[in-house]
């Protein structure tokens, strides 16, 4: 049985393919997950992540960009961009604990990132995004907007 980490790995691959122009990735997602032996609850988990990222892509990118410092989002490696998008989606739209999300993203960065600095970069971006999101959420609650 597949783990959530394996499900996330599959999602990273599909997000990478989507970023390269495979606009029909959602139609192929279930069969791709089956091929990777990701089934049942983990398949539903992976599919929900993929669908969530693609559906909210522009909003996710808006949340990521301010935390890139001097990096240009378009010039990031495709895998790093996919890992950041998945991590940001989970931080912004799911109930998964932030340390778990960031740790999974770091491990994916170590495994798939093109350079040794990718895990540190991913950690820094997701950590600052998480803190900014928590602060904005706290401020919104304090103002009675949530």
UniProtKB/TrEMBL annotation:
<dbReference type="InterPro" id="IPR006027">
    <property type="entry name" value="NusB_RsmB_TIM44"/>
</dbReference>
<dbReference type="GO" id="GO:0003723">
    <property type="term" value="F:RNA binding"/>
</dbReference>
<keyword id="KW-0889">Transcription antitermination</keyword>
<keyword id="KW-0805">Transcription regulation</keyword>
<dbReference type="GO" id="GO:0005829">
    <property type="term" value="C:cytosol"/>
</dbReference>
<feature type="domain" description="NusB/RsmB/TIM44">
    <location>
        <begin position="6"/>
        <end position="130"/>
    </location>
</feature>
<dbReference type="GO" id="GO:0031564">
    <property type="term" value="P:transcription antitermination"/>
</dbReference>
<comment type="similarity">
    <text>Belongs to the NusB family.</text>
</comment>
<keyword id="KW-0694">RNA-binding</keyword>
<dbReference type="InterPro" id="IPR011605">
    <property type="entry name" value="NusB_fam"/>
</dbReference>
<dbReference type="Pfam" id="PF01029">
    <property type="entry name" value="NusB"/>
</dbReference>
<protein>
    <recommendedName>
        <fullName>Transcription antitermination protein NusB</fullName>
    </recommendedName>
</protein>
<dbReference type="InterPro" id="IPR035926">
    <property type="entry name" value="NusB-like_sf"/>
</dbReference>
<keyword id="KW-0804">Transcription</keyword>
<dbReference type="GO" id="GO:0006353">
    <property type="term" value="P:DNA-templated transcription termination"/>
</dbReference>
<comment type="function">
    <text>Involved in transcription antitermination. Required for transcription of ribosomal RNA (rRNA) genes. Binds specifically to the boxA antiterminator sequence of the ribosomal RNA (rrn) operons.</text>
</comment>
């Amino acid at each position: 049985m597949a783990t959530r980490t394996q499900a996330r790995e599959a999602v990273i691959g599909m997000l990478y393919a989507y970023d390269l122009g495979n606009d029909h990735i959602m139609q192929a997602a279930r069969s791709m997950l089956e091929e990777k032996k990701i089934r049942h609850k983990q398949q539903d988990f992976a599919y929900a992540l993929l669908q969530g990222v693609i559906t909210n892509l522009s909003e996710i990118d808006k949340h990521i960009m301010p935390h890139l410092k001097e990096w240009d989002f378009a010039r990031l490696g495709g895998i790093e961009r996919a890992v950041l998008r998945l991590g940001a989606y989970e931080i912004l739209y799911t109930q998964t604990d932030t340390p778990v999300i960031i740790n999974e993203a770091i491990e994916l960065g170590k495994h798939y990132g093109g350079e040794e600095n990718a895990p540190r970069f991913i950690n820094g971006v997701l950590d600052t995004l998480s803190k900014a999101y928590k602060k904005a959420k706290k401020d919104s609650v304090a103002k009675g907007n949530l």
